[in-house]
């Protein structure tokens, strides 16, 4: 009988302690970037805005996607996406040559949703540049994430375009 009372008391104590602890689900993020040559269709679009007759391989496309997912336990979320001009300014500053041409994208950061997304596709003039130069320059562009579940240490992290998490 003493063992039953001891086990019951231990179980009830464990349950009441676990009810007092609020452990939020961690956030899940993914951030990925690709740097590729452009398609024939994209090349036709570029030819409408550039002068001369550059080759298709004189252009590249950066595709950047960011996603953050979290539980309902989050009490505060602040996500700062790159300013729209930051892509243009960064690409044009690599060697002080006008390189930025086209940008497409969208973002979703509605407070009532548990998923945040950011997507960009940027076509630029890449002749004379290697991938390393482009990647280094684009690391000046980042997404700043602050998430607080009200329990423990809040998450405050910066995601660079070509950085590692």
Automatic annotation (TrEMBL):
Keyword terms, alphabetized: Signal
Superkingdom per UniProt: Bacteria
Signal peptide per UniProt: 1-19
Protein name (record): Lipoprotein
Species in which this protein is naturally found: Jeotgalibacillus malaysiensis
